[in-house]
Design goal:
This protein is an alpha+beta fold and about 350 residues long. The protein has two domains: about 200 residues, no CATH class; about 90 residues, PDZ domain (Pdz3 Domain), CATH 2.30.42. Helix content is about 50%, strand content about 20%. The chain starts with a helix and ends in a 5-residue tail after the last helix.
Length: about 350
């Protein structure tokens, strides 16, 4: 693996982490919470610079980061600027700001890609010979508006609808010269890419600035839905654990993306940003999602929960997360994801 592309991938990943932590940092400052340290990376400190009240540090392990606030939950502190003395709604805003920043970063990156590349629309630009689409009589210029009962408004909608059918017969609704027609066909599997096709290509249309932003929102929302579906399948054991990747896989995939070009790297960065947001929203102690649950409970009951008990639960959650990260890293090394 080329060291230049690996460093580029590491830089891209660091930007996502910094963005996440800046979300916590700025909203903490907005709520007059004292931030003691802003760290990029984990483990032993390599570099540090003391600001007016915050120490900015770079640590040895280039994954993750944190914002250390005075009186974090689980710590007792009487200072009015301590996090534990803020209202539950303030705590909630501070904790939720990190994942929200990752969603915003994904929207921005997808918007840049959409503006640079144009937007794929479900209008057929080419039909390959000897494919299901060719056999069914689909023509260049046909607009795909439905697959069975599913309405199609974007190319992504169409791709997902095709893959859901998994080679079963389906009815595709087309708009041809202002007339609605239907075609029945079965998609063809591409095993090495784990997807299904019918043999058509989308039309690429240039988009406006606001059109690109709209595309950024749509891509982020679509990816979020797909990620939750994946997690649901994982918990229901419908998706194998072999499809889960950790830090090593992230770097390998990002380095490959960097080698393929800047827009590919931006796309994989947007993808990872969404995954970071959703992972951090999981209701697990020590993650943002765990703190969000605590804040919501405090809002509902109108009082603070026991700080000492929360601290102990958080410590256990942290140990579990570290153990999980180690196991996933070992799995990445022994059984890497196929690129």
């Amino acid at each position: 693996m080329n060291i230049f592309y690996l460093l580029l991938a590491l830089l891209a990943f660091s930007v996502l982490i910094i963005g996440h932590e800046l979300g916590h940092f700025f909203i903490a400052k907005l709520n007059n919470v004292k931030v003691e340290e802003f760290s990029v990376g984990m483990g032993p400190k390599l570099l540090g610079k003391k600001g007016k009240e915050t120490e900015y540090s770079l640590r040895a392990i280039p994954f993750g980061g944190y914002v250390k606030m005075l009186g974090e939950q689980g710590e007792e502190c009487s200072d009015e600027r301590a996090l534990n003395n803020k209202k539950p709604i303030q705590k909630l805003s501070i904790v939720a700001a990190g994942p929200i920043m990752n969603f915003i970063l994904a929207i921005i990156l997808f918007s840049i890609i959409g503006y640079a590349n144009g937007v794929k629309v479900p209008i057929v630009s080419k039909v390959e010979l000897n494919t299901p689409a060719h056999a069914a009589g689909i023509l260049k210029g046909d607009k795909i508006i439905g697959v069975d009962e599913t309405k199609i408004s974007s190319w992504d909608d169409f791709v997902k609808a095709i893959n859901v059918k998994k080679g079963e017969e389906m009815q595709i609704t087309l708009l041809r010269k202002n007339k609605t027609i239907t075609k029945k066909l079965k998609s063809k599997e591409v095993p090495e890419e784990n997807r299904y096709i019918i043999g058509v290509y989308p039309t690429i249309e240039k988009t406006t600035f606001f059109g690109a932003i709209s595309q950024g929102f749509e891509e982020t929302a679509s990816l979020t839905r797909e990620t939750f579906k994946f997690l649901g399948g994982l918990f229901q054991k419908k998706v194998p654990l072999s499809g889960v990747g950790g830090p090593v896989s992230v770097m390998r995939i990002s380095a490959k993306a960097a080698e393929a070009g800047i827009l590919t790297l931006l796309w994989i960065s947007a993808y990872i940003s969404v995954q970071l947001a959703i992972f951090n929203l999981l209701p697990i102690p020590a993650l943002d999602g765990g703190w969000i649950i605590v804040s919501i409970i405090e809002i509902i009951i109108g009082r603070k929960l026991n700080e000492e008990k929360i601290g102990k639960i958080t410590y256990v959650g942290f140990i579990v997360l570290i153990s999980f990260a180690i196991l996933v890293t070992i799995k990445d090394i022994l059984y890497p994801l196929k690129l």
